[in-house]
TrEMBL record:
The chain crosses the membrane at residues 46-63. InterPro entries: AB_hydrolase_fold, LACT/PDAT_acylTrfase. It comes from Puccinia coronata f. sp. avenae. Keywords: Membrane, Transmembrane, Transmembrane helix. It comes from the Eukaryota. This is Phospholipid:diacylglycerol acyltransferase. Residues 17-30 have a biased composition (Low complexity). Pfam families: LCAT. One of its GO terms (biological process) is lipid metabolic process. The keyword Transmembrane applies. GO terms for molecular function: O-acyltransferase activity. Gene3D superfamilies: alpha/beta hydrolase.
Amino acid sequence: MAQSTQKLETEQEAAPTSTLQRRTSSSSTLKSDALKEQGIFSRRRLFFFFGGLFGAFLGWLFTEGSPSLPDGTFLSDFDQTFANVKEAMLSESSIISSLLPQLNISDVLASATTKSWLKNRDFTVGRQALAKGQRKKHAVLLIPGIISSGLESWGTSEEHAPFFRSRIWGTAAMIKAVMTRKEAWLKAMSLDLETGLDAEGVKVRAAQGFDAAAYFVQGYWLWQKIIENLAVLGYDPLDMSLLSYDWRLAPLNLEVRDRYFSRMKMTIEHSKRIDGKKTVLVSHSMGGSIVLFFLKWVEATGPLFGNGGPNWVDEHIESIANIAGTLLGVPKTLAALLSGEMRDTVELNPAGVYILEKLFSRRERAGMFRSWAGSAALWPKGGEVIWGDSSSAPDDPVNATLTAGNVYNLRHSEEKSNLTMSDAYQFLLQQTPTTFQKMLESNFSFGIETDPERLIENNQDFRKWTNPLEIQLPHSKNLKIFCLYGVGKPTERGYWYKGEQFESDEIETDGPQAKCKGVGIECDKKNQTAIVPMSFPLSRQWMVDNEVNLEHENPKVKSGVTFSDGDGTVSVLSLGTMCVDGWKKKIYNPSGIPVLTHEIEHRPASFDMRGGSTTADHIDILGSAELNEAIINIVSGREDLVTEQIVSDIKEYVKRIKWAAEASTQTI
């Protein structure tokens, strides 16, 4: 392949165990007919009782220390366990990888604990700004990422009716669905491999309103902190909106099925027409890629495009606040698509791995990931130029003994053992069905373009619009871009794989549908032989080799994962390259739109499981005081208070990127 290839909501909290025990005891005095009428296992409280026991058991399973804990140490030990595994629940591209164990623990114990990390925080940052005289000024549109876009089932078939209007992604109801009706849940969450839309008999849509992204599960806030602080300035649903989306879909299919970008355009135009206000777009994570796509879509001409003309962005958008944007992709998507794994799963102890595999196998996870065309928007972009080659990578540390340029490091391979980004693309595609390959080719592109004429042509090529290396920023004299992201947290950069046994794959050939194609050739059906799908075990199963631990190497390798700097989910190369360097080049930013980068150092508070107000974790940064202060300054018209701040080595890294001569000639 070339470089150009691509929420059953529970209504009550868990009752204390003692209450449930009393009720269970008293239930023995009930008459048998009453028992039949009520159905003991239909009680929600009994369900949560057993769920609590199961969650506590899983918490023990995932603890690597001794099962005999001294008195008074259980809560602190549990906190550490939860800290170690919470990221798998909330990592942008890997939440499914350990979905069941993690969410059970947090959901069951959420209402029974008084830990500060499960409580709402106050409106401190907003009140401080208000005291300084800051007020709302521009309209605000929030664009969430994967974790913060809840999905609802609208299917009415017999299989999916029990889920009707329930969150099958987000909230504790999702966990109940996975535990009790996993196959139906998997079917609902998977897309049709041919169309990239809903599978037959399935209808899933993005939840709407602020509730769609304020919390993920009870007590676990997402956008709630930002919404609270903006409300202090006077914002309400009349001038602040949150537009969630079905992140499983390829961007153009969001328009085809849901008219998502049309609704975004109308929301922004409404603010301008009714209130005379331009809009500030505030995106998080994958939402940054969605905003990039929108900027090109709204000005492009065609039946599926916005037809807004070349001045639309300048006239309607005040600024863009890109929070932890996945601008150049996320390497962990390559592991999720190849084997359904990532750091969060491979670092579990053997008992935890066994339980997870029985509940939600690697093969099931990978299969579901591959049906999500939207996941390809998170593929790393730029190939070896951005991500390095077999000898070095731009983000290799000083005195490196290994290079992060090798994305896949293969053991037991008859072929090349160390694969750079382009090689990794090819290798991954060889392990995936043709439907996935066609989806990639028809919706995405991952290369670099430096020809000015082709960049202009790409204004009409929607496949390029999530790749900032193949498109130009809009022509705007007034637009401002702010890149706000965290650094200083080890982040997945590459993987060490081992080949397992061979198995029969599920990749089907074209079979009887194969057609003879050729210019001026008349196909003779008598000479055609239908290809019969092979049943031999020809596909090798690959898994991350968690026995590879190279703690003394530089960069470090732990449990088969190579680490670099970032926010725990997205590498600093993806977070900062375009902001610090790429968009400083005339070829990608012809209007000279000012781009300001403000990095936030990850300094988590030890007493707070979410990291407190000084965190810069990919998800928890939404509650960071520094981040919230920056957002308030931007939307209140005090952008001058947001300063350039670089605390990572990103400026050194971008110096090592071997840009083509055309891209380096003119800078802003």
